[in-house]
Amino acid sequence: MKSFLVLVVVVLVVNVCVAQDYGDVTTATPPSNGGVSRTKELVPAMFVFGDSLIDNGNNNNLPSFAKANYFPYGIDFNDGPTGRFSNAYTIVDAIAESLGLPLIPAYSEARGGDQVRYGVNYASAAAGILDVTGRNFVGRIPFNQQVRNFENTLNQITANLGADDVGRSLAQCLFFVGMGSNDYLNNYLMPNYPTRNQYNGQQFANLLVQQYTTQLTRLYNLGGRKFAIAGLGMMGCIPSILAQSPTGKCSDVVNNLIQPFNANVKTMLSNLNSKLPGSKFIYVDIASMFRDILTRPATYGFKVIDRGCCGIGRNQGQITCLPFQTPCMNRDEYVFWDAFHPTSHVNVILGRKAFNGGSDVAYPMNIQQLAALDIETN
């Protein structure tokens, strides 16, 4: 309880400041935590919801096969393996630093004081928009439960400080949400799920976004106003899919499958901006950024774009990194860390582009501009 009180008290007194220039994202290298000197925060706090692309430890103590709290995960991170599915940073770590925030702690591990006052990460590996997604990994925290965990946080602080104070603070915080990958990889495309026989690609995208709309509206009703929603990336080009391809090339079938979802999400965010007073939802175009990296890898310093830095099987893509497996040495030159996840180098590039990029990567504004908005609450 004391930890949550500290969170809100600090949030109420933090002011928004002017952003600093973080340099050329094309030459970004994976930093370690604490590698960038923090300036004054651009938002009071950031709340994170998503899957393994941004999970930072919420699955560590779950009875789950979806875990990354062992080496070589975290090999380039000061704290070692934390549960991040990366050699160091995730995209939200890079965004947090760009916002002048410390790295956001996992909901399952945050204990109080300085650990939680700048936000909480609720993301969970294998989680999906649909509750049934990811059951092959056993334990995971679906998006609905992530929203309930956030609600539990608010219930504990609202009773002590009052809804008005909490509401004014939350309106200036950033809510980052990245969901949907597992609904395809660990649901629709899995042979032990009936989903593909029940829905065609467009119908499934419609189902997901209908549920997604309800979930995001719930976060709005709980006080969120500034939302950055990440679209799905080039999933047909990940090592896991390449390992199944007889040609070793990106799967157009998979890439085309997710296009209706991304299109629906863009329409959904436009509708939410119109219907929810005081809200501002932006779309972070992961597919566009990833396509540019894969098309022009040398521009970003990459040499290997079709296999994981660690893993087992063809293209290091059939099984993710095994405990204490020796990964590649030249990690900065790899786009993919394992069968499903990008390297920290890629995550830093994506995070910085989402922060200060143009309308081709973040629409209708970037995260820096979203952070600067002064949201009025009734």
UniProtKB/TrEMBL annotation:
Record flagged with keyword Signal: yes
InterPro entries recorded: GDSL, GDSL_esterase/lipase, SGNH_hydro_sf, SGNH_plant_lipase-like
Signal peptide location: 1-19
GO molecular function terms listed in the Swiss-Prot or TrEMBL record: hydrolase activity, acting on ester bonds
Coiled-coil portions: none
UniProt-listed GO biological process terms: lipid catabolic process
Highest taxon listed in the record's lineage: Eukaryota
UniProt-listed PANTHER family: GDSL-LIKE LIPASE/ACYLHYDROLASE-RELATED, OS05G0419800 PROTEIN
Family stated for the protein in its record: Belongs to the 'GDSL' lipolytic enzyme family.
Name of the protein in its database record: Uncharacterized protein
Gene: LOC110696529
